[in-house]
Amino acid sequence: MLRFENRSQMRLSSLADYAVVMMAAAARHCGQERLNATTLATATGVPLPTAQKLVGRLAAAGLVESARGTGGGFRLSRPAAAISLADIVEAVEGPIALTTCVDHERDNCALDHHCLVKPHWGVVNEAIRSALAGVSLAQLSAAPVPRAKVFA
Hints:
With about 150 residues, this protein is mainly α. The protein is about 45% helix and about 5% strand. It has six helices and two strands. Strands 1-2 form a two-stranded antiparallel sheet. The mean pLDDT is about 85.
């Protein structure tokens, strides 16, 4: 679930952020040898235990395929263009749910019977999920395009 780390800002958790960084690094190695958590931890600066934990979650979500033994490791399970930012966030955080109103597992809002906004939170939640789904891993792993400077 998308979580609030700071009450004044909506942010991804560190684990979701690290997963995106690792998946982008894996996408840049696409078509090359299988990767392992140690290689990605070194390349990204993500602590090795965290990288190992995330590889497990990403594999369980079907975003990476892993193989054991000699020549083992993991690779993306599909092309980077077919993996979205929403896929990665949900692999680590679970379904994107901005409020308990849209979290079907935790629908325990004290205002439930009096709230006139609840019917609209689904639309807001889907807009945010769609925005994340509209960003592909291929985009995230590409070299950044320099912004043009605007002079006043």
